[in-house]
């Protein structure tokens, strides 16, 4: 549902180019119109004399008098009229962290200006930015971009732009107000973007009739879609996604004959898809995550190229022609109530088809690959029957095939597993039989054939695949031995061969195994090989229900990462080596085996370990329910509203004397226990001036304790979630657990305070800014590569640690703004408690409104609605890319990850991704950066299954040294 203009491709990565092209086209053709009424030219030399005044704000390395103004960073000049004099027409000062309003005094004199881009700065108040009386620039300005600032006052302060055509105020803090009163003051407005503010009330309908693009996504607009909106006959882009809109959509689209993109995702709209939507220009329509019902209109894809109707209540069958229209690119009907069969005829251009989570029956049509373009095919969790058609092997571009949880039978036809581009193959939970094929795509990273009826042996070639990371064959009837080629597997992280009929001994295993190795419920014999002890990253080892005999090798004691060892029901003897206290050990059913550890599968430890199993199961079962930590986060709009409300920090000292319900020290360290005073902490919170950082969900205050030492106090802006149904106790327990974590790259709370309506956490104060400040802050010093690399390593270490905790810790908001620096190269991951607070289970609506920060949100969150480790890996990949490129996670409306992926397709363009200011410093740096780039790109892979686990990422980063 991240259907905003500013990240158009979060859910449709592949369309990036198209959408970009569309916008490029738009902006290219924009400026001509007003050129005629422009005032007499202000020569560039004169502009330079005015603008030089700003060099102290912008930086003398960018704007200085030794370079002509037209060559200054962010300044564009154009030859004006027939004369050949240059004038300054565009100024772009994006992402300089500027908050100093004095720059406007000078910019206002540049009346030749057509385009002003001040996005990603820190302006707070529109009011005095453009004093009407003295700002000549306003008269000719065509395009104004103030997106991603901290503007929070009234929009009414923005008026007097008679020529303005493009206004972008997205990602600010504009509050609830009656917009309609102001939007009329831009008579030539063509493009208005108010996305991601805090606007409430009705959709405004007082804009100029010329309006062609309206983006209002990510606010809290409510009510139904007003009829008056259909008076804007020039509209080509209408994005109302992620609001609180309800009711039926007016059937008036014949009044919008130029509509190209319509995004309604993530609201509560209901009723049928309106019949008048058969607009010939409409190429993209997304209405996912609403309550639309009724049938899928037969004509909907006649013009639409990208259709997303997933997560609605549509029923009936898929119209026979729906998928066949020429030019169709992507259809997503996941999670509706569709019945009937899959249409026979598919468009040649269709590259993504998702029909999972319906009640579709019948066979998979033989013609499904006639189109040849399919890259993503997901038909899982339906009632499909019959054989898998061998024609699927004709889909040469297939990279993800998910047919899991159907009633498919017969063999897996030759040629499918070896499709060259195939990365993920999921066929689990069907009734497939016959042998496992012997040839595989070299790209294959996930192969799941579990819970079928496959027979024969495990093909030894499967372990020669360089990229295979997950192999799950459990619950079949596979016999023979485990191929010895497994020792040479390079990427295998998780192997499950349980519940088969395997015989022979356990061979030397791949040392990359880390998540789990499950060989249980087979007929394996011989002794446990001592070299299993070299699997120092393995967390779960299950060898139960085999015929293993002999002693348990003492080398197993060196498996440092082990959390669970299951040896039950074998014929083992001797004694179990000594493990860490918290390792769960199960040796039942081995008459001669003695466990000297205190931790023999006792009730208390079992209770703790369960989540781990749950996690693994959840990763394999689509649509699984909530695990202790893997959260099915489906968040109510009402929840996000509450978050927004508490974000308003209106605290005066009087209001501030909050009654402390519970203040509790977690740390045992006497330095802290004697220093921390809860009342002092609360006093600090009363004073606005103590705020030193605000993240998406938290506000940090600096507090000086009576003994002079300084602490950070963090206010949780989503505190209200903690107080629902007396959740305080649960929260307190979870914070206690987090407080016991010890990792130098993770911010661990020392104490917490609960008041009547808020929650606060106390930390050591060692704050030297965030990674975002370091990379994109006002200080213009270029950070060298060794520092960036050690930040990457530190964050990877912290995140690997959190993912490896007994009670998995997932991050809701992982970005360069939530990573604090203790020093230039000592990063610490902050805000680790969020996934414990934001109770997902009772939420509905749009996930992406709360799932972290735009630019870091993995594409699949829009569909899966739950936090995952793979999702965190994606966010980490974006952080790596920021370190490599020096660019922010979103710039000019394009997500960094998407941009890097699009460039990386051509090896000769990879250079261009890197920050040349550092990659050029030495050959060694350059080659190391390229290796890290490869890691970053694998982390931001579109398919979550294709992303490496953090453990592996960390290892790869080390190897890149
Ligand atoms: C230059 O800036 C200073 C303050 O920053 C201001 O007082 C002065 O008037 C400015 N000069 C011009 C020519 O804008
Ligand atoms: C002056 O600005 C130019 C272009 O913005 C830059 O390349 C140059 O290094 C700057 N000069 C100084 C002395 O900072
Ligand atoms: C300058 O601004 C105009 C008007 O918005 C725009 O069309 C043009 O592409 C811009 N040029 C550059 C080089 O950014
Ligand atoms: C498309 O819309 C027009 C006008 O509303 C209508 O007359 C026509 O029958 C519609 N066509 C289809 C295929 O529904």
TrEMBL record:
Record-annotated membrane-spanning stretches: 614-635
GO molecular function, one term: ATP binding
Leader sequence segment: 1-35
Gene3D superfamilies: Phosphorylase Kinase, domain 1 (3.30.200.20), Ribonuclease Inhibitor (3.80.10.10), Transferase(Phosphotransferase) domain 1 (1.10.510.10)
Pfam families cross-referenced by the UniProt entry: LRR_1 (PF00560), LRR_6 (PF13516), LRR_8 (PF13855), LRRNT_2 (PF08263), Pkinase (PF00069)
GO CC entries: membrane
Membrane topology: Single-pass membrane protein
Protein kinase domain location: 686-959
InterPro entries for the chain: Kinase-like_dom_sf (IPR011009), Leu-rich_rpt (IPR001611), Leu-rich_rpt_typical-subtyp (IPR003591), LRR_dom_sf (IPR032675), LRR_N_plant-typ (IPR013210), Plant_LRR-RLKs (IPR050647), Prot_kinase_dom (IPR000719)
Keyword annotations of the record: Glycoprotein, Leucine-rich repeat, Membrane, Receptor, Repeat, Signal, Transmembrane, Transmembrane helix
Coiled-coil regions listed: none
Subcellular location: Membrane
Identification of the protein by name: Protein kinase domain-containing protein
